[in-house]
Amino acid sequence: MKKGITISIALISIALLWYFFIKPQDYQIRVVAKANTGTINQALKSWNKTLKEASIRQLSDLNHLEQMIATGDSTHIYLWNINPITDSTSQLVVDVKDADYSLNNKLVIPFGDTDFEKQSRKTVTDFIESLNIHRKEFKTTFIGEDELPSTYCACVEHKTTQSNKAFGMMESYPFLNSVIAGNGIQVNGIPFIETTDWNMQNDSISFNFCYPIIKTDSLPIVKNMVYKEFIGKKSLKAIYNGNYMTSDRAWYTLLDYAKENNIKIEQKPIEFFFNNPNMGGDALRWKAEIFMPIAE
Question: In its keyword annotation, does this UniProt entry include Transmembrane helix (predicted)?
């Protein structure tokens, strides 16, 4: 009898020790989101920018982010864990902790619905609502494998972030148009982006914004513009409809397909644009063909 009581007390003590001092979160929220990992990752970072006194950073990979939100006299820490379910749905497991009142939360949470819990649920709900609005702003359709042709082109080099990619394009459109029209250069296709570097940890990219042209011996030398041979190759292809600011959502669709089917790829997406974003209009009618080269 005494031995049983001793064991029970020991187990209860260990459980309490774990709950109050080892358990990393004060509160956990689980919700299913209708989007893939990359879309959630980018949407979460964009939504964070709309909040006051909030910061976010990506941890080990796309699936894990830490967000800190100042509220009242404390800071709430949200650990967002994204777990893929299908190619278009994910489970979010959100661990929430109060940086200053964690012990107090753990004392009172078992006995009622606290303000901390309500605020945590509202924060997650607000993001899901924002995500659902964003999902209606674009469409990605996976096509399959395709062979990209090679072409000669005139390009402007850019180094920026994924979210600012479209602004780089919009700056280069009139510049390239004026150079091509002013020098009688013959265009040989629609404009495209050739990504030369993509750092998924900090969302930075380097890319060439290019116009395919006919190569001649009399092409003018123009400051801030380079000529190059674009070498086409076999690639995974998707169609993107929506604002080109978020065309990288299609990149993640291609990444997921390659991972699921054990296809080795070069993480250097290529985008061909059928619309000029400077002209405006209904973005859902804009079209881009997105390619992810297959590694040789």
Answer: yes
- Residue 1 neighbours by CB distance under 10 Å: 5
Hey, where are the domains in the chain? 20-136, 140-293
**Against a cut of 0.85, is the pTM above it?**
yes
Asked if residue 18 has pLDDT above 50, the reply is no
* pLDDT above 60: residue 160: yes
pLDDT tens digits for range 183-229: 999 999 999 999 999 999 999 999 999 999 999 988 999 999 999 99
Fold of 140-293: Multidrug-efflux Transporter 1 Regulator Bmrr; Chain A (3.20.80)
Class of domain 20-136: alpha beta
Cα(231)–Cα(140) distance, rounded to whole angstroms?
A: 25
DSSP string, 166-212: HHHHHHHHHHHHHHHHHTTPPB-S--EEEEEEEETTTTEEEEEEEEE
Lowest mean pLDDT among 55-59, 152-156, 232-236, 276-280: 276-280
**Distance between alpha carbon 97 and the CA centroid of its chain, in Å?**
25
